[in-house]
């Protein structure tokens, strides 16, 4: 009996995206599925049992949506897959067309609440944001009704698909991807405390406040801030670099996951201080769980959803993300109380092992595939 064939298509994400490649695709391969991934890449290759078919690498949004999507459809159709799985909203027409033409199953994988994102997109004129968000939400709901399954990253996104009983597969860490802490932790400079942030570097992610907080710390307690990610734009980068506290920052730019995890081994505290925006307050940022899995105590925004995770597991300190003073107080406490900080880190690791790892989420994905009659 031949293996059921899965074709994952993305025109937006890189081929080795953590959720798509390392979690979903690898989980399917390990379960016995034949998996092909179509993504922007520079060559055809097979990596960890996953056949990667390259798409040309494009940066222009218009040509990507209207040109690359059609190119992806043509390649995907030739795969004769049993299930087509796609995580990009712009591929909804492609998924629908593949289902119609091939009679295969189709799964829509929703990572973000796009209708809420549209309302804050800088490239969308202000007066058009709400109308476009409503139009998109309606179109997504109508189009996705023809799909055989919907997978979402959070419960709040699932509410947009209550008619379809969307499967919530949280974007929790895959533990084997991370070093085994604390055993693998690098030797630390005991005189310097290293704070780490990983992710998009934007105004609303609280970077300015977090860096500004460093000026309030005792000069006899040196701190280093390792900043990993991509700046929103050159103007915001210049604003951040102009801060007097930027002298404490080491900016690494965007790093691949293995390089990020190596930096976790050199850190003492992880920070995720997103501003009080509605879409952030219902989000579950994977980096927060990766800090926890790496035995790092976290400083996190005081969102009610996060409170159950951070305070409920005693693995960090909640702060007003728009208050440098509160962030500084949290840092001071963790620096002055190393034993409590160590215990918080250990509690975070335990919580991820027991409740917030990809293991159980992968089982949900496999259950959906099996329910479609496309088990291996």
Provide the fold topology.
Elements lengths: L4 E5 L8 H13 L3 E7 L4 E3 L2 E6 L5 H17 L5 E4 L5 H11 L2 E6 L3 H5 L7 H19 L4 E4 L2 H4 L8 E2 L24 E6 L8 H6 L10 E6 L5 H8 L7 E5 L3 H8 L4 E4 L5 H4 L4 H8 L4 E4 L2 H7 L5 E4 L4 H13 L1 H17 L3 H14 L5
Parallel strand pairs: 1-2, 1-5, 2-4, 5-6, 6-7, 7-8, 9-10, 9-12, 10-11, 12-13, 13-14
Antiparallel strand pairs: 3-4
Helix pairs in contact: 1-15, 2-3, 11-14
Characterise the protein shown here:
41% of the residues lie in helices and 18% in strands. It is of the alpha/beta class and 376 residues long. The protein has two domains: 5-172 and 357-371, Rossmann fold; 175-354, Rossmann fold, CATH 3.40.50.2000. Strands 3-4-2-1-5-6-7-8 form an eight-stranded mixed sheet, with helices on both faces. It has a six-stranded parallel sheet with strand order 11-10-9-12-13-14, sandwiched between helices. Helix 1 (18-30) packs across helix 15 (358-371), helix 2 runs parallel beside helix 3 and helix 11 packs across helix 14 (338-354). The protein is globular and about 65 Å long. The relative contact order is 0.12.
């Amino acid at each position: 009996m031949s293996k059921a064939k899965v074709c994952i298509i993305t025109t937006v994400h890189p081929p080795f995206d953590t959720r798509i490649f390392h979690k979903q695709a690898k989980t399917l391969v390990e379960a016995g599925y034949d998996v092909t991934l179509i993504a922007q890449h520079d060559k055809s290759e097979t990596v960890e049992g996953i056949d990667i078919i390259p798409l040309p690498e494009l940066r222009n949004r218009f040509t990507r949506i209207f040109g690359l999507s059609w190119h992806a459809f043509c390649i995907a159709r030739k795969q004769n897959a049993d299930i087509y799985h796609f995580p990009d909203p712009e591929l909804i027409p492609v998924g629908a067309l593949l289902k119609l033409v091939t009679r295969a199953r189709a799964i829509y994988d929703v990572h973000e609440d796009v209708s809420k994102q549209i309302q804050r997109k800088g490239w969308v004129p202000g007066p058009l944001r709400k109308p476009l968000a409503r139009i998109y939400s309606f179109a997504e709901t109508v189009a996705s009704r023809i799909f055989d399954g919907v997978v979402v990253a959070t419960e709040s996104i699932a509410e947009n698909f209550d008619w379809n009983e969307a499967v919530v597969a949280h974007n929790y860490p895959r533990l084997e991807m991370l070093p085994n802490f604390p055993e693998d932790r690098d030797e630390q400079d005991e005189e310097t405390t290293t704070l780490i942030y990983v992710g998009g570097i934007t105004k609303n992610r609280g970077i300015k406040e977090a860096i500004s907080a460093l000026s309030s710390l005792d000069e006899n307690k040196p701190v280093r801030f390792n900043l990993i990610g991509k700046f929103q734009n050159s103007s915001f980068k210049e604003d951040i670099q102009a801060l007097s506290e930027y002298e404490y920052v080491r900016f690494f730019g965007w790093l691949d996951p293995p390089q990020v995890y190596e930096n976790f081994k050199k850190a003492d505290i992880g920070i995720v201080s997103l501003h009080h925006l509605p879409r952030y307050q219902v989000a579950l940022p994977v980096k927060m769980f990766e800090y926890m899995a790496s035995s790092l105590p976290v400083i996190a925004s005081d969102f009610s959803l996060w409170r159950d995770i951070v305070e409920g597991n005693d693995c960090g300190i909640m702060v007003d993300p728009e208050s440098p003073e509160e962030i500084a107080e949290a840092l001071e406490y963790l620096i002055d109380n190393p034993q409590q900080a160590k215990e918080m880190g250990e509690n975070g690791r335990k919580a991820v092992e027991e409740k917030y790892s990809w293991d159980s989420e992968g089982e949900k994905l496999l259950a959906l595939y099996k329910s479609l009659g496309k088990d291996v």
